[in-house]
Structures are given as C-alpha cells and as structure tokens.
Give the backbone structure.
Amino acid sequence: MTKYVKYVDVTKCDGCRACMVACKNWNDLPAEPTEFLGSAQSHAKTTADTWNVLQYIEHENGKGNLEYLFRHSSCFHCTDAACEKVCPENAISYTKYGTVVIDQDTCVGCGYCTQNCPFEVISLKEYKDKNGKEYRKAHKCTMCTDRIDEGLQPACVTTCHTGAMEFGDKDAMIQKAEQRVKEIKDRYPNAMVYNPQGVGGTHSVYVLAEKPSVYGLPDNPKVPTSAVLWKDYAQPIGKAMIGATTMAVVGAFVANKIFSKKANGHDEDGGGNHE
Amino acid sequence: MVEMNLNRRQFLKLSGATAATLAVVELGFNEKKAYAKTKEFKIAKATVTPTICCYCGVGCGILVHTKNNTVVYTEGDPDSPINEGKLCSKGTTLRQLYTSEKRLTKPLYRAPGSNKWEEKDWEWMLDTIAKRTKETRDNSFVEVENGVTVNKTEKIASLGGAALDNEETYLLSKLMRGLGITYLEHQARI
C-alpha cells in the first residue's frame, strides 16, 4: 500500500489559519476561546479539541533582522510512533496509509501517549457519562484518515490557498521537500527538511526555514527505550501467559462440566488433554 | 493416562468449546474493524450545493454539504475559477452561518428613536420597506437640476453584498437606477 505524506512548506505559509478552521469544520470540534498570548498565535499548543495550531514565531535571524515564522503544527504521524508503543490497550495503531490513529472505543484515557509523544500533540479530554461518571479519551489529528479512505485529501490541505501544504505519495513529497530546501537556501541558510529518523521518519514532512529548535521541535526525537522494552518484550510475554492461563482455565471448566454430568463420576481433571 | 469415556455428543461439545475458546483467545476477534465498518463517512449521501462566499469581495466558490436538514460540511469549490478549492480562514467558517446559535432566523425591526429590536414577520417587513422607499423617493425626487434633467434621489443609497452573483447584481442595479438612486455601490468594488 502506498504511504502518504503531508508536505508542509512553512516558507509559503502566510499564517491565515484556514487549516485550523478546516480541521474543526471537518472533525466537528468545538471552539476553544483563548486569552491573548502576546502574539498573533491563537492557542499555545494543540489540545483535544484543537488538533492543529498555527505557530507564530518572532525570530531574529543571522543578520539581526526580524523573521516572522509560521508553522502549521499537528501530529507528525511517526513511522515508529512512541504513542503506539506505550499504549497499554493497543488503542493506537498504524493505518495502511502510514497515519497513526486512536481508536476512541478502546482508549481508556490513561494518558501514557500524551506523556510520551516527542512532539506533545496528543491531549486528553474529560467527559461525563449519563450517570455523571467522569472518563477521559485521548485525541489528536487523524490526518483525516476517513477522508483518505474515500480518496480525498486531508481537510487542512484542501483549504490551503498558498500551496504551503500538499498531500501525496511519500517518496515524491520527500523529494519535493529536498528540492525546495535547495531553492530557499539563499534566503534561509538554516533551511532543512524535518523528517526525523529517530522515529523512523514521519508522515508530516516539513520544510523548515530555521533550525528545529526555533520552532520548539526536538532535534532528534526518539521513542523512549523503556517503551520499546515494555511493548516489544514485556507485553507479548505477559499476554502469552495470560492467554495460556485463560485457555487452561476455560478448558478445564468446560471439560469438568461435561464430565461431571456423567453419573459414574470421572472426576479427574481432563482439561490438560485437549490444550 | 487419563481415561476418557466420551460419547459422541460429549465429544462434539468438547470440540466445539475448544474451537470457540481458541478463536476468541488465540486468534482474536478484531472489534476495531467491525466498528469502523459501521461508521458512515461524514458527507456520504449529503446533498452538495454550490454557493458563493458572502464575506469579502473576492467571491470564492463554496460547496455546501447538507444532510438531515442541517449543514454538515462546507469546503472550497474545486471547480470555481476564483479559488480553485481553496479558502481563507473566514470562508472556511461558512458552515457556522447556518449552524451558529447566534444566527438570526426572524427579521428584527428597530423603530426610529427606539433602543429595542422587535421581531416582525416578513410580510410586514417587505411592505414597510416598499412603503418607506416610495415615500422617501417621492419626497426627495429631483427632476431637473441646473437646467439638466436628472430624475434622481440623493436620500437613498444602496450597497450590494458580496454574496450576490453577476445576475443578482445586474437586477439590483436595474431596480436602483429605476428608482433614481445615484449612491449605488457594491461590496466587490470597495
């Protein structure tokens, strides 16, 4: 299956925020009024109801001039996603397109994903059920996987009027990003493609005008080793053991039921024989 | 070795139970997939109506997806030569024009000198507008000015909205010129 990438060229972005609105419109997310933060940026970071936020950064460049930098920030859809690794319920999974999605029915709101995401793009939302009991669910950008399923592009990409965002075949998009960085090196000497290999590459590939740290991004994000140990070693062994135990118990129970019906009483445990 | 005296019925029961246990415990039943199939695509079976953005004078084309008597999604019209499917942040909010709780659904009237809005029905509203337009026009109509026939009124002005298309704007200017209005403007020109 073709993997897709959302290509974001921050140097073409004019900060109109239509991507933020399109996201709310498609995903039916409620408004989140905010206080003035001291710049034109509306929200400090992504939240459970605001899956992408347009960053406004006032940066002094190498020549001592002001650069007004924008960045559409949302989930990166890592190839090796820390959130997927740490989720104890396997509620987070990869789709065939390379996107990372949270299954809302399976999510128990433990919040491990929000703590382990290297980009801090997952948030918990609190709900109340009809009995007044509180529960939580993790939310983040889905890259509009439901739209991709129908052959459409993500809502944010379709609305972008400067062409700062494009959506397409992974290799083509990465190539495009590399080409674009060459074009803008004169104006932005620190320009680079942000497709961190520490998480196996991402499915949101950025052309950044400055170093990642200027945008508050980690230089080399990684999946925590403890998460790898837990998910790839401890959990499968634990699950296998639970599986075997369950099988034995269920099997023994069923066999016992059947045998105890017999009047002449074969009381010995027959469970071991058919496992 | 444990002796197992099973008759045919018990053997079948046992095999069935084992198979079911295996299926559930070992192979796993993927509820996720079953659930995903039941969820319908948001704009499936929605009626799509093209419209023009009512905000600025650019006149971007917008597709309105309606279902169950409400607007479920709005997006830029890819076939529009103006915006080619793109929209700004304000145009992207167009859905709220219909779904917002703050939306007015009845005409409001504020009488001269009053500080309150009153709800009125359309009939009263249109009649009153027609009556007062005629009154003002008749009272302020100038036929000749400095020896030149002008047939105009300077007491009324008209401002067209950005949601109007070419044909509506044409009709509007015809009507206004017919009344003798000289202060005739349109949002798209500002």
About this structure: Chain A has two domains: 4-222, 226-274. Residues 34 and 43 of chain A are 7 Å apart (CA to CA). DSSP finds seven helices and ten strands in chain A. The longest helix of chain A spans residues 225-261.
